[in-house]
Specification:
The chain has 194 residues and is mainly β. Helix content is 8%, strand content 54%.
Length: 194
């Protein structure tokens, strides 16, 4: 379908099969697949804010299993369903960095959890045997032009001190904190539980 972009138009007629916007529209935020000639207007004309657009964008893209924030793409995010007595669960996804600079994922937040932290898989040797373990880290990198796969048995994002237990079939809001070049940004995903 082509790359998704978020744009802002202040003038001109924008026409789709459902929307006809005159030049007098004060401010229009839109999502577009320019290669496919498709435009979406999920927020109110004149009342749209950037935060509303980010929310709308995450809803649209989470449904497609792909979220793009600038040079960062997040594919197939999901959260593991856990029993009602559980105090923690984990989120998995593939994070793709299409930029020429490394990106750090340094945790985040969710309404269902008191803490959201990155966790890595470790390997060590004990009595001549390789032992797998897990360790919390402040952040983990996604190298420039590379991807990092968060998967069961490997690196993942822990959701701890659960306020409500995610059930299979639900959708959970998960905000990730991203650091690059000394700047911090957040990306909010609507993540299916399975």
């Amino acid at each position: 379908m082509g790359a998704l972009v978020m744009g802002e138009w202040h003038w001109g007629w924008l026409c789709t099969d459902r929307h006809f916007l005159p030049p007098s529209s004060p401010r229009v935020y839109a999502l577009a697949y320019p290669d496919a000639g498709q435009f979406f207007f999920p927020a109110k004309i004149g009342g749209a804010t950037l935060s509303a657009m980010k929310l709308c964008m995450s809803v649209l893209l989470a449904a497609a299993g792909l979220l793009s924030a600038g040079d960062l793409k997040i594919e197939d995010p999901w959260i593991r369903a856990v029993p009602p007595s559980s105090k923690a669960t984990a989120a998995f996804m593939t994070i793709i960095n299409t930029s020429d600079k490394p990106v750090m994922i340094s945790g985040g937040s969710s309404p269902v959890a008191g803490e959201v932290k990155p966790m890595i898989t470790t390997k060590s040797r004990v009595d001549g045997r390789e032992v797998m373990g897990m360790e919390f880290v402040e952040s983990f990198p996604v190298a420039a032009g590379k991807k990092r796969v968060l998967e069961p048995g490997g690196d993942h994002i822990m959701l701890m001190k659960l306020k409500s237990v995610p059930k299979a079939g639900a959708v959970v809001s998960l905000t990730l904190t991203i650091e690059s070049g000394g700047e911090k940004e957040t990306v909010t995903l609507n993540v299916p539980v399975r």
